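Re: [help] complex structure
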Amino acid sequence: MAAWILTITIFSPLGGALWLLLGESADAGRVRRAALVSSLVTSFLVLVALIMFYADSNAATDGSFCLEHKSAWLTETEDAVGTIDVSYHVGIDGISIWLLVLTGFLSPLAIWASFSGIKERAREYYIWMLVLQTGMLGVFCAMDLLLFYIFFEFTLVPLYFLIGVWGGKQRREAANKFFIYTLAGSVLTFAAVLYLAYFAYGKTGVFTLDIQALTELGRGGLIPYGIQWWLFAGFAAGFSIKVPLFPVHTWLPLAHTEAPTAGSVILAGVLLKLGTYGFTRLSLPILPDAAIAFAPFMATLAVIGVIYGALAAWVQDDVKKLVAYSSVSHLGFCMLGLFSLKMAGVTGAVLYMVNHGLSTGALFLLVGMIYERYHTRDINKIGGLAKPMPWLAFFLVFFTASSIGLPGLNGFVSEFMVLLGAATSSGTADGIKAGPLGFAYVVPAATGIVLGAVYMLWMCQRVLFGPLIEPPNTPDSSAGLTSDLTRREISILAPIAVVCLAIGVYPKPMIETMQPVIAKSVLQPLPDHSIEEGQEHFAEHPETERAMRRLGLETTTTDATSTNAASAHPRSTGRIEGLYAEGRLPG
Amino acid sequence: MSENNIHDCSMLILLLPLLGAVVAIVLRQFRLGDHSHWPVIFGVGGAAFFALNILWMVLGAEVGQRSVQSVIYTWISTGAASSWFNFEFLVDPLSAMMLVTVTFVSTLVVIYARDYMRHDDHPERGYERFFAFLALFVFSMCTLVLAGNFLLLYMGWELVGLCSYLLIGFYYNKPSAAAAAKKAFLVNRIGDFGFGLGILLIYWTFGCLDYASVFHMIEEGVAAGGQALPEGRLAMIALLLLCGAVGKSAQLPLYVWLPDAMEGPTPVSALIHAATMVTAGVYMVARCGAIFTASPAVMTVVAIIGAATALFAATIALVQNDMKRVLAYSTVSQLGYMFLGLGVYAAGSAVFHLFTHAFFKALLFLSAGSVMHAMGGIIDMRKFGGLRKVLPWTYRFCLLGALALAGFPFFSGFFSKDEIIHHAFNQNFWLGMVGSVTAVMTAFYTFRMIFMTFHGPERIPEGVHAHESGKWILFPLGVLSIGAVFAGLVQVPGEKVNHFLEPAIHQFHAAHGLLLGAAGHAVAHGFWAEYGLMIISGGLAILAIGVAYLLHVRWEWLPGLLADVAPKTHRVLYNKYYVDEAYDAAVVKPLRKSGRICFGIDQYFVDGLVFMVTAVPRLLGAMLRSLQGGAMQSYGLTMVTGLAIIVLLVLLA
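Output below.
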């Protein structure tokens, strides 16, 4: 079972799609229920995978892969030429499991949200949705670069049709632009992938695309900097467009605006993460030197994106476009965290991927719910909706709060960790070598937090508050919609809200599983001797060391006297009394 | 004192209001929304009970044992191995005193709101929402006060901001209320921008965020890893933290949101925008005394901001006609006093003023609410007058609050304000003078308000059935007026509050380095040194009240004449120095314009570049296509031309 669970999970939506394809039923109601059931089955399988992941004590605490399944694909052994190692290899670790869970969580909700909006060609629509799900699950499980690339590109096709067929007025243009834009970038990525394998062949005699093997290669410092530079540029070409990083973000607003609601949810929620995930999984570990060299450049683009996206979002009249531009701004934060090359920053970035998927996905759902009732997304044509739609108001304010990083909700945790990582990038307290960023990046990025509140609250004020403004002949109740959210819609939003709250209050389980992975297979912890050097540094200042130890701060020494202070909990209760008792604080 | 008890009490203080909020909303689902004040009264009242319990325990403990830190659970990772930020509480004299103030005033306001949010005994629309938000606010404010580290402080800080946003915008149909709510949140966010950076800088410097470790390392003069503290770092941190305090406590230049916040229901103005939330900045600066007092320059900045705000807001309050606006500017001004106190190394006095102010300002706001309730929502003092017969009890309570605010001898505000002015004079003559002048203005505008509202001939707007409020409203007023009159006795005689707070308020002293716990300087002794200023300021307050009486009761024509004599001054003051307009022109419009520029760049330049890149293959395609039109004659022509060129080339070669 353990070996097969991921494969079954990945291809279960495809099975659902086949079921829809072969089933003759023309009844839209049955088709959509079947699609929902299929995606729920997948979610259940993801849940099983999560439980198995936790059951595997190595994976949950040590940062290794689990539930691996590898079978030969293009593998050949030829004495004269060498070996080719390209295989179907899937597995998950503490990073990918959460993105897998995100996909499994959002997909059924997106499908459920389509029930009232999709009236034409419903069967094809749901087939594409399910096919898309397979692609996304595949990317996050792939442990072979070719497999990764295939799934990565494979997601383009269903989304191309989803936008092009069920989209808005400019859907053709949007679909074409989206497809060509992202394909153009990823062709360069593919070139880099092939060269990387070729390089590995030259070094080891194995033409390998196994991500772990390549990571070992990168970590061992076997790839010269000049080659790393070019490979990084090639990877970045494809991933940056997907993220999207300023200035290659211009496909996003159009694609988002024109896509059907569920398409936008999946696009923002999961597909954008393929880019950041690519950076996390491939660029940083395999090309560490180039990552450090590129970090200031990438972080600068990220910070520009944060501010630029926020400012552009503020002047949008189309609510959906506003949320789309907010994604540009938010993903800038995510990239900033990644390229801080620090534990806090990268953890924050991975968490950001999940959190952005939840809050922005929910915002797109809400915009879709407004659109289905009022047939407009123009902020000037609607207003004061809080009065007829209190539930909508509640959820919109809730997810706005999540999106602008209100502490206690999910967005804050990741935003704070990203900024903390960027601010402390040049430190080595986390046992990882110094990164290139610093406060110079944090200050402008933090203005993005102010601007984020500006445009989101501006939107809330216009849409929810003030006197009621409704376009003529609305709200439209032809699809069985009530004036406030229906029970189905509330049931779609409520789980997302609960998860947002849970992550904001208690993110520890996620952080705990991510950090070993980041230490093990994303960033390279300092070799042990440098920590010993730090120890010597403390030894030179015995007084300071004592002071620190009295405070319960960890000094990494293990001599007997310090065990008292540092044993139970470094910040344990009653420490202050201890200080008083010792006479450190005047009574 | 027992840690477990403290721990349990703190948890209950947080959880009871939260539970109240949830129950209030659930009640609505059972169509019992009319009763949703009950769970909140019990929740917040319970919090008040346990806050008193905590204060009792802190008082009962030995002086050296009055701080307890308790960890609830680990929250966010710092990235360093096994190092986490905790959800942790710090209970010490300062937080105990704040907790009692906050929960006590909250309870009274919630009781008051039971009647205030009804008309003819019918709950207003959103009744349960109102109470749920109030309870959520109490939860957030207590989180802020109880926080044991900067991160949790920030969380409470933002959450009270959210509650403030939700409650200012309670009447969301009113565009002005929605705009005011947004403005409040955004102006606060600007302050929090600095605050957040300050927290990051603290972490970068000290490698931790919990108060005890940070303050202790400052005392030792060490930074993370045992290195020496970089020069000027503490001043930098203090300035960044100050940004947050200036935003939340509505000081210059970020005070602009507070007057607009009066769009919210009056109980909200009383609780959040007068008594509790806006004092969070004062609390924070007092809490971080170790950081602030380390840098005399920053302390000067704090004192100047405080003095300037106190004076500036008082001048605006002189001419406002909206009762709540007068009180709002008065709040800004009084918060200025608190900052002045902080800036002249008298944090204890500042917190004491915070304490008395919470009573009398909440009292004044709630009285204003009672007037508004009676006047059918009208709050413009030009439209009514002489109400003391119609609203006898409201009048009496309001008068007590006004006397306290005006600094009438032996009322609570008299003691607390006087102490701050006293310390200001000790520090710098001009700071003291600004404090005294502002005190005179305060007495004047307060009684201008009283006389305009309650004295003179009886005038009631047409169609309004004026009536004294019911017991739900009068009871809290009564309790608060007891506080407004007698709260000063907590401190005087003998500076009891200062001594109580001493262990919690850290202060650097020029001669001795950091003194852990010195809430204020020892004041010079001798009769005149001690009481001279008291007598003078008491006299000035009485004098100002007399002038207000003459101007607004005796010679009613005079204020109009004054406004005519100095029309420009009056207009500038009445329009609040045009600060809002200036901000709009200097910040909002340019930002919005740059947003348009960004979007323009997006549409034309960036996309244009992309278009040009894609134009290359398209152009090639177009060129090739034109060669393949399918017409035989053009193929023939091309062929012949090509042949001719080749022949020509061959011949030439």
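The longest strand of chain B covers residues 68-77.
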